[in-house]
């Protein structure tokens, strides 16, 4: 039986809505496919058999009754295991929470996808408490990149990104505090959207850094990403003419350290979009440092009481960074927040004469999981800590960022497209143009 995932999001929904495909049949095939293949990739921590089949049966009932089953009818989606799912324990990738009571209700974003007819099929692997860029979890193992199983999927939302790339489900929910959607989307070759901070509800998602946390979707196509975003916001995008957009490249920090393949990929994207202008943001290194400090201090504050009692239960790599964050002086944290406000204002200035900025998402191809290093400044450094080299600085401003899976030889590479706050419509329209032109396409196996 076919899973239907040789088709893209909008095609699956169209077939189910028309009654030509049964949502139950699609869901049964998807669940069987995940059971058969996920032992190799480790994208999924829990399958939602009963919940998925109940949701699918309800979609088929609505179709048979002539009711509207929703724009995403029958489309399977994965859920990063920091979103509440009714009846499931939200573990945030940690054994520390495994004895918590099950959730009474779904997170807002999960509920909205269900309202749109999408089918929740699995909870997905992540870095513990979303603190990392690798999806290398001491409790649940490493999620492997579907395009090269000896390499990292990226993180912390790696299970959702890799599941979409592996054609296990069409859509995935993730969170992005410092790059946790953008990094795995790039390394796995799928579409990912970090929405404007505050645009999508974080209600029902386990926090990491409350002042920076953002959530968003992964998708198998630009059109699927737009349909998903419309379901999450309950808004319909107004068409945007992309032909006269003012597009520029980010230089300086964002032009250094790229691998040769990434440099060629970004050059090709800029050329296609006519992005001849280069914009340089000030104090990017300090902005990244501020993101580190804010993340470490707020994360530590959230976990400190529990760490005092159960430090040994934490992933050692996460525990050590949280403990270090607890030692940061208040004056340094204050300076980091002050820099954040200043940097946000500088980002707004950068868009005075520009509609979209282009930047690489990562320095290059995914590193091997048994040698998790990347080259920065001529030195080999930890991938887990540094894959966010280009994503972390942009975190401070809270602007929306679309990760574009570029068509390149070799392993996947992605670019960031950045717009003003609230202008996801521009990014999604531009993404669809790139997809239709064959410049950017999700790569699935």
TrEMBL record:
SUPFAM superfamilies given in the database record: Amidase signature (AS) enzymes
One family name in Pfam for this protein: Amidase
Leader peptide range in chain numbering: none
Domain Amidase, chain residue ranges per copy: 25-428
GO terms of molecular function: catalytic activity
Highest taxon in the source lineage: Bacteria
Protein name: Amidase
Organism: Gluconobacter wancherniae NBRC 103581
